[in-house]
Design goal:
This is TetR/AcrR family transcriptional regulator. Keywords: DNA-binding, Repressor, Transcription, Transcription regulation. InterPro entries: DNA-bd_HTH_TetR-type_CS (IPR023772), Homeodomain-like_sf (IPR009057), HTH-type_TetR-like_transc_reg (IPR050109), HTH_TetR (IPR001647), Tet_transcr_reg_TetR-rel_C_sf (IPR036271), TetR_C_Proteobacteria (IPR039536). With 208 residues, the chain is mainly alpha-helical. It has 2 domains: 46 residues, Homeodomain-like (Arc Repressor Mutant, subunit A, Orthogonal Bundle); 127 residues, Tetracycline Repressor, domain 2 (Orthogonal Bundle). It contains 11 helices and no strands. Helix 1 crosses helix 2 and helix 5 crosses helix 11. The protein starts with 6 loop residues before the first helix and ends in an 8-residue tail after the last helix.
């Protein structure tokens, strides 16, 4: 049985929940620390004790959403499984995160803030890419195992995720298109992975 949260942790959780609601409803510019404090039923001083600025609060929300979507899945490289099978699982993990309503709404807020004040938003948007290291680590391990061509794992990570986002992130964020259906999602996954392996996979008599 989990222990009850300390009062300070309860207040931090309340601030984060209130901030998510405010940012989603009003955007970054129109949301103030005063509004967040009122919504969380805490003092403004309490908000600043936990988060020194609105930018840091927003960045923390993005990071937590990202971590929450990936924390349940630890997919290390396995030499006994095909590359295709493992990559499909990693890609499905990524699409699960992109399917989160909170993440999509807050991504819109972050992108809008980047357009209006790029110098201030750079750190926030950078947080959205920090959790892509999992795939980079996997690619590095597969490369060390001789099953992938020599390449820059970080570049290949962005390349693979870029293919996914072209269908399952940017159309939804920028044009309000619906999320891909189950059938479309499967097609995106398989074609993306097959294209990626078509270039990066080392020839093997047993396949990938």
């Amino acid at each position: 049985m989990s222990e009850p949260l300390r009062l300070t942790d309860q207040k931090r959780a309340a601030i984060l929940a209130a901030a998510i609601a405010e940012f989603r409803a009003n955007g970054f510019q129109s949301t103030s620390m005063d509004k967040i404090a009122a919504s969380a039923d805490v003092s403004k001083r309490t908000v600043y004790n936990h988060f020194p600025s609105k930018e840091e609060l927003f960045a923390e929300i993005l990071l937590q959403l990202w971590q929450r979507s990936l924390a349940r899945r630890d997919l290390p490289y396995r030499a006994d499984l095909s590359l295709r099978e493992q990559l499909l699982a990693l890609v499905a993990q990524k699409l699960d995160m992109l399917d989160d309503d909170n993440f999509l709404d807050l991504a819109r807020v972050a992108i809008a803030e980047t357009i209006h004040t790029p110098e201030r938003a750079q750190a926030m948007v950078a947080k959205m890419g920090e959790r892509e290291e999992g795939l980079t680590t996997w690619l590095r391990a597969a490369q060390a195992d001789g099953r992938l061509r020599p390449h820059d794992p970080a570049f290949a990570t962005h390349q693979l995720y870029g293919l996914l986002k072209a269908f399952a992130f940017w159309p939804q964020v920028t044009m309000g298109q619906p999320r891909p259906s189950a059938e479309a999602r499967q097609h995106i996954m398989t074609t993306t992975v097959d294209m990626f392996l078509g270039y990066y996979a080392q020839p093997s008599p047993t396949g990938t």
